[in-house]
Amino acid sequence: MAGNGSDAGRSAWERMDEGERQAAFGLAARYVDFLNIAKTEREATEAIIEAARERGYVELRRDSTVVAGARFFAQRKGKLSALLMVGKEPLEKGFNIVAAHVDAPRLDLKPRPLYESEGLALLRTHYYGGIKKYQWTALPMSLRGVVIKKDGSCIRVTVGDGPGDPVLTISDLLPHLAREQMEKKMSDGVTGEGLNLLVGNIPLAGATKDPVRTAVLGLLRDRYGIGEDDFCSAELEAVPAFPAVDVGLDRSMVGGYGQDDRVSAFACLEAILSLEETRRTAIAVFADKEEIGSAGNTGLRSYFLDNLVAQLFAAAGITDYFEVRAALEASRALSADVSAAFDPLYENVFEKMNTSYLGAGVVLTKYTGSRGKYDASDANPEFVAHVRRILDDNGVVWQAGELGKVDEGGGGTVAQYLARYGMDVLDCGVPLLSMHSPFEVVSKADLFMAFKAYRSFLLD
Ligand code: MN
Ligand code: MN
Questions:
Q1: Domains in the chain and their CATH numbers?
Q2: CA within 13 Å, CB half, 134
Q3: 319: which of 20, 192, 236, 333 lies 20 to 30 Å off by Cα?
Q4: How far is CA 440 from CA 2, 30, 289, in A?
Q5: What is the H or E stretch that residue 445 is in?
Q6: pLDDT tens across 202-214, in order?
Q7: pLDDT tier, 5 (very low <50, low <70, confident <90, very high otherwise)
Q8: Distance 61 CA to ligand 1 centre (A)
Q9: SS3 at position 134
Q10: Residues with CB under 5 A from ligand 2 (ion)
């Protein structure tokens, strides 16, 4: 193994004693449970706030009492949230922030999804985030999300994951008839308009037009109280139906859907909930919409962070808005997001000296971006040194890595949206295999090191 961290070339496993290994396995078991209940951004947000409430976090309000050790949460639209622990130092000195995202690539139902073709009812989807479309066919899929009726009532839909639940699926062409498909480019073999979910086959007796579609509408009405028009005010997401599980005969890894970036969100949640008190005010952010560019009022290009800090300052009696801006500028942040781990099956897209490796610890990525660092928040070396010191002082195994070869492609994180405030930001996350696929893989050692890294950073 290569690797380029504080102790280059050594597996994190070799640098953990028996106690740490056990802690890593314990953390991973809780993580698997988290992945299985938090398959959408709403479910993740709900799980985060529930866990925070259990640890004494209360909703931040204009009349909250802001004293050292106070614990607050804030959420927007059920999809974007933050946890805060007030530090001993004055708020004006800024915060230690760790920001992860809770949305993940998936297939969203279209506003008018349901149609019938030759005795089959299907649901049309529009994919969310960057996916390789062929990976999403011939899999058991569950449907999760909400339908909001005109009267404002919210109907939760969760089908496909419970014991005995039926699943939905997108059919794929048999090899026998796939000659033309197989000659296409992989990007064209399955199209966006071809990602339609099978949802029914029994016709409604006596129906003259679209009898299967009509029968499915009847089921939706009887089971959920929703009509066809209600789909247009819904967020229904098709996600893989199988649960997250241990991977490897040695159970060293976790495989499952949505680990970009719920692995960071979980590590970040565990880190902040493990704190009793901090020097600087600690903030854990759990953002939505990262996978589609952080746009919208639940993404980090919104004014959420500004408003959150303004609300905290107002509660603390500081109403000068300049103080809000100054505190944000004086803050330090880790952008907690996954990176692409070296994949031995696709060696040629990685530059071995500057890539991250599964099981070699948390990855520091100085810059992301693509083809000449375009759109990167290139971290200042002074801050990278600051983070290195924190990690080394706290026994965190880490490595330095870029996402792939220079001209091969690239990606981005929320780092640039935090950097706008003037705060220092560095990407720090878990290396991942099969990113954006229905079954992503992480190492339990890296998850544990991410937890330790975020905890040490928040405590600094
Ligand atoms: Mn991500
Ligand atoms: Mn991603």
A1: 5-104+257-459 (3.40.630.10), 106-240 (2.30.250.10)
A2: 10
A3: 333
A4: 22, 17, 19
A5: helix 444-459
A6: 999 999 999 999 9
A7: low
A8: 30
A9: helix
A10: 260
